[in-house]
Amino acid sequence: MKEKKNIVISILLIILITAGSYLLESVVKKQGVNSAKIIKITENNKVAAFISAEVLKQLMEQYIEQGEKITDKGPSLQLVMNAAGYSNFKQIVVKGKVDNKSITLNKNDINDKLELYLENNGTVNLYEKGNNSNFIVKGITEISVEK
Q1: Which pLDDT score is estimated for 132?
Q2: By CB count within 10 A, which of 12, 65, 77, 86 is most buried?
């Protein structure tokens, strides 16, 4: 009888820990996206990936090691889209938290001049190379892809 009770308690603990883990993960993702510290990449209104500034820094380091020319501010938008597996698309919409500003870009609009600017606080901005005093989108929260 005592063994059955221990088994039931163990199963309940496993269920509670699992449910708590899923809840915690959901809360952390939502807070990250809301604070513009995690960029959500969506395709057809479904989440395809999450990217943080730390991931973008690692991506930059990897490409610099391969001899790619990348500024110290951040990788190009084109490089990020390719790394996320979206080298072939019709258009993307880059949405920001600051001013709720967004920009729609066609495949032809995306070139090496559009770069991401990694802030020290973990947020990411979009700017055009040579004009980094004016950000196109501040605090990127989402990149929506249309294939």
Answers
A1: 60
A2: 77
